Prior knowledge:
Blueprint: E1 4-9, H1 13-32, H2 37-55, E2 57-63, E3 66-72, E4 79-82, E5 86-93, H3 96-100, E6 104-108, E7 111-115, E8 120-126, E9 131-135, H4 139-149
Helix pairs in contact: 1-2
Amino acid sequence: MENFYEKQKFSQLWVWLILGFSFFAACISTYVSSMNTDCVIAVIIIGIICLLFFSIQLESRIDDTGISYRMAPFEFTYKLLKWEDLESVEVRTYSPIREFGGWGWRIGANGRARNIKGDKGIQTVHKSGKKLLIGTQKPELAQTTIENFFKR
């Protein structure tokens, strides 16, 4: 049986246009205001936000032990969801904004989510009732791998 691995990064054009425009505007304001301290601080803060978005990545793995995931740089080690601890697992379409308020490290009415882009995710329900959705850009492969490993 083949294992599943996926790494996602923020690659949406609209995200980078907003960040780039903000950084550019802050740089222009700093130049025009002859290096005003407030503008310099704004450039530094926006630069840090750009670096943060560039470094964020969601990694997920599915194998015979379960589903592992981490959202770097916030989670240094993988979290493992063992098959025997899960009530159900399925790939589903979801509404990131309506269900979780957007993308990223989220908490919503339907539980927790780790997602970077898109509207497909691996929905897990623990035997304790806790729910976690892990975003995926490879829904068919994820579903096939889940069907190979998850025994209900």
